[in-house]
Amino acid sequence: MYRAWVEMTAHLDLDRPQSSTPGEFAAAAVDAGMDPDDVDELTRLFEAVRYGDERVTDARADRAVAALRRIESAYAGDEP
């Protein structure tokens, strides 16, 4: 779960990455051309586990990885 979030956000250009919120990372990801639905899915999962009372389950981890893979597949297709 956390690894998927880190992978999605690792290459985003934010002015203050150490103090940026998940919403700010999500907005930057969408601005960078990532699919809003996949970004939203991964962001909601991350927030639920990181800031909420949800546990990392196999189902949540699978959903996070699936969203990341879709992002990677689509986003990598934009590179020359």
Low-pLDDT runs = none
Tell me about the largest β-sheet. Answer: none
Say how many strands there are.
0
Computed CA radius of gyration, to the nearest angstrom: 12 Å
Overall pLDDT confidence: 91
What is the N-to-C succession of helices and strands?
HHHH
Organism: Halobellus rarus
Pfam families: DUF4129
Protein name: DUF4129 domain-containing protein
Domain Protein-glutamine gamma-glutamyltransferase-like C-terminal: 2-69
Explain what the structure shows:
The chain is mainly α and 80 residues long. It has one domain. The chain is 65% helix and 0% strand. Helix 3 packs antiparallel against helix 4. The longest helix is centred in the last third of the chain and has 19 residues. The chain is globular. The model has no long low-confidence stretch (mean pLDDT 91).
Descriptive keywords:
mainly alpha, 0% strand, 80 residues
Q: What's the helix and strand layout?
A:
Elements: H1 2-9, H2 22-31, H3 36-50, H4 58-76
Helix pairs in contact: 1-3, 1-4, 2-3, 3-4
Q: TL;DR?
A:
The chain has four helices and no strands. It is mainly α and 80 residues long. Helix 1 crosses helix 3 and helix 3 packs antiparallel against helix 4 (58-76).
